[in-house]
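Suppose you are handed a protein chain with no further information: no name, no annotation, nothing but its sequence. What can you learn? This example shows the usual starting point.
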Amino acid sequence: MIPHAALLLSTLLPVSGSFDIVPGSRIGHVRLGFDNPSILGQPTSSDGAAGHIWSTWKGTTGNTLDTYAVIGGSEGHEVQLARITSSAFHTANGVKTGQTWGSIKQRYSGVFLATYASHQFSRTLAVVDNKAKGITFEFTVNASNHVTNASRCKAIWIHAKGMSWSPNSWTIYEPTRP
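A reasonable first move is to predict its three-dimensional structure. Written in structure tokens, the prediction is:
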């Protein structure tokens, strides 16, 4: 297995000839509908019950890869959601964490879903979803808890295209460990 220290930059390399984040499909080697790939090794933390499991792999820079999986057929737990905080990963059109809403909305329109108090980033974040494409973004907010063109993307999620996704369950399992 590959050690956790090198996890986010060495184990999630894109499949040859493709891009790292494919909305509605995958982030690196993590594909929706499949078990977490063994190349990731053991997660830094996980929590599961009633056939569901949240897993987090944390890199040395503090960035995380998070997955939410449910018991599937013979394949074990099938990934339903995946989340990345590292700016090393990007979509085919160059969208990645660290960019502003003003820049990202030119490529992915979105619907504001909710704000929540992020333990991982020690601030309030807003969740903006593009249901049709299967991609969701977490953004910083201003003092009035609004997303502005200057709001920065802190994390990117992928989910099945057309899936109704709720950020409420995520706040229970968000990484809180230093």
